[in-house]
Amino acid sequence: MTKKKPLGEDDDVSPSIVDSSEGSDSEESNEEPYDSDADENYNDNEPIDSGDEGSDEGSDAGFEDQGSDSDEDSDQEEESASDSYSETELKIEPTLTPPPPPSFKNSGSVRSAVHERELEKVFDSAAVGHNQSLLHVDDLSSDDEEGNNTIGRVPLHWYDEYDHIGYDVKGEKVMKGTVGDGEGESGVFDELQDSLSKLNDPNKRFTIYDSLNAKEVTLTPREIEVIRRIQAGAYAHPEHEGNPDYVDYFSSEKEISGINSGRPEPKRNFQGSKIEALMVRRLLKRLKDGKIDMDYLTGKKKDMNPKKEEKDDPFLMWKGGEEDELLYRKGPTHIAAAKAKPPSTAESYNPPEEYIPNAEELEAWDKLDVEDRPYGLVVPKKFKNLRSVGAYQHSLRERFERCLDLYLAPREMKRRLNIDPESLVPQLPKPQDLKPYPSIKCVEFNTPGKPKIRDVTVSGDGQYMCSAAEDGYVRLWEIHTGRLMKSWNIGEMAGENGETATVSSVEWNPVSGRNLILACSGSSVFVLGSGTGGEEDCETTSVLAETCVGKVKGGVVMSEKVQKVVKWNVLKVEERGVSKFSTISGPLVHIKLNTKTTLSSWHSKGDYFVTVSPSAGAAAVLIHQLTKGTTQQPFGKTKGAIGDAKFHPTKPFLFVATQQYVKIYHLLKQTMVKKLLPNCKHLTSISIHSSGDHVICGTLDRKLIWFDLDLSAKPYKTLRYHTKAIRAASFHKSHPLMASCSDDGDVHVFHARVYDDLMRNPLIVPVKILKGHEVVGRLGGLGLVWCRRLPWLITCGADGRIVLWQDL
């Protein structure tokens, strides 16, 4: 007795469809029932009459191959067949078809004709409704099936020599089953019992043995149907349509509508192609130049390039032993030695008189090294003729040094880049395209006595200008006429021991309508009323001054630390102003400090101002409030001498410049936000852009440094155009301009445009050099200021001049 084989290896399973209602008439169903007994009793040796094929036409009525075209009659038969399937109850009677002999594959055999009819039944589209009742999409998936034995995906032939088939999740052996092994008496008995059960139970033939789970599994009608379709070469799922009807979504017929009807032909249909004309012109040009000929145009010749004939030169088929392999090694590239210099005129036997040295020159040459002498070892001499020339005494030495150079001096191939230097320079716009900017000196203000002018400032309306001189005077000028309007000698008030102090800084209140001026002289800071402006401006200035005076007279409580270094005093004002509406003119408030004050600067709102005293230690930077008459000391200690301090235009930041750093402090949080690194020796001045994101610094080592606060703490640009120390640098408030003045007496004007787009870098272009100051005592330009609304620049210097530059 043989071992049981799994179903589907050699047996051909072909279940048939049988009507459950046996007593029904043949008229109720258009299809004959499939005779499974006839298939079982089929004899391969029994001849089959070819006329049987014609007799089966009744059973195959309504069926056709997949993909073939059907006529109207076949369609009606298919509809009737599908209706009969839906009305009657169907069941599957699987039949076991014996394997076909080798002659079955021949097209002319009788067996092949039977198989073709079976295939027609499988591919028949009328049976889709019946097969659809047997199969479902979920039945074709075995993902949810779980085996009893969890031994993993291990080949079972690994355990042929053992009594088990693996280990489960608990590590215990899974023993082999006893069904279907065919060994021993029990196995023979089981096989015999299976054969007998197949005779009694028709479904027993579809029972297979699952060796993995050690159990018998009976195939369901659905699974048998899938196996039958796969063996027949059809799609496993009956619902799948291999060749669906093509749906022409976009019709090829042109729809005629009112929009497209009556439209004339375009002009391009009646003109020649421009591309073809261009190709013809190119071919004619190449034909005239001789690059092509008519044979190439007519196609007789495919290539105009002459074919290279292969040279049949003799060569060695193998290397000989006499060849040196060192010759074929790849060594370093050979570099030719530098040629010796050709003899000069000094080495001639009859040189000109100017080449012959005298006794003094010979002594001087003897003291020099050979490399430093004009002609090296050669001493020019004059001979009558060439026969009189003796042997050269340094010939052996020069040859020896030449050999040393060739032997010891390494040779290197240096590639020189052939680059135009102008191409490396960034392309900047022309200065003529960047106007307006100051270019011409229009007004020169003559200061009495011509003292050194330390600083200048301009009123908000651009009509008046105020200067700080070294003689202790603060002078008020009218810009358009150059007329001196007022002078205040605050140097005597700030001086000590009868000396007059120098006015080092002066600045106008930035708020329009507040005609107040800050001035620093010695160790004092003065608040002056300019006495200018209209009626409303004078009223605003008077209210602000009266508020400040009232607070100071009433006595404001300040900390003991601040009271030790600051003292507020009110001055009597009995002076008449320039404007008829003005009631206040001259010094109003006197703030006395312990040490010398060099600079003062307003806040953008016009109430707070900061003063700088470099030698005051912790009190080097003080913040004052005018409306309350109070002073604050923001720092408990300072590192390094402080030279300048400015407020941020929009944020509560304070910029403090030491000799080598610029520190940014947050006044509300009382923390340092950023520390800028100018990389210089000594800072002289700083200026903040109106946007607050850019800072420029002037230094004593001739550098103008630009910082982009959003970019980095290191300089964005470093400009070195001045020849001496830079004393002042400033941004324009409303125009893209920047200027710097230096001890060389020149004032450099730059176009400095800052873009709102953060992806674009600022544009810095030097546009003009203004020469209007002389150098006096190694000092040139000392200060500058921009007019707030116009591109005008006012500069001052050590020569006592104040110059107005305009854009004419």
UniProtKB/TrEMBL annotation:
Q: Where are the transmembrane segments?
A: none
Q: Name one GO cellular component term.
A: preribosome, large subunit precursor
Instruction: State the Gene Ontology BP annotations.
Output: maturation of 5.8S rRNA from tricistronic rRNA transcript (SSU-rRNA, 5.8S rRNA, LSU-rRNA); maturation of LSU-rRNA from tricistronic rRNA transcript (SSU-rRNA, 5.8S rRNA, LSU-rRNA)
- Record keyword tRNA processing present: no
Places the protein is found: Nucleus, Nucleolus; Nucleus, Nucleoplasm
SUPFAM superfamilies linked to this entry:
WD40 repeat-like (SSF50978)
Q: Where are the WD repeats?
A: 453-487
Q: Which InterPro entries match?
A: BOP1/Erb1, BOP1_N_dom, WD40/YVTN_repeat-like_dom_sf, WD40_repeat_CS, WD40_repeat_dom_sf, WD40_rpt
Q: Which GO terms describe its molecular function?
A: ribonucleoprotein complex binding
What job does this protein perform?
Required for maturation of ribosomal RNAs and formation of the large ribosomal subunit.
Report the protein name in the record. Answer: Ribosome biogenesis protein BOP1 homolog
Q: Which species?
A: Triparma laevis f. inornata
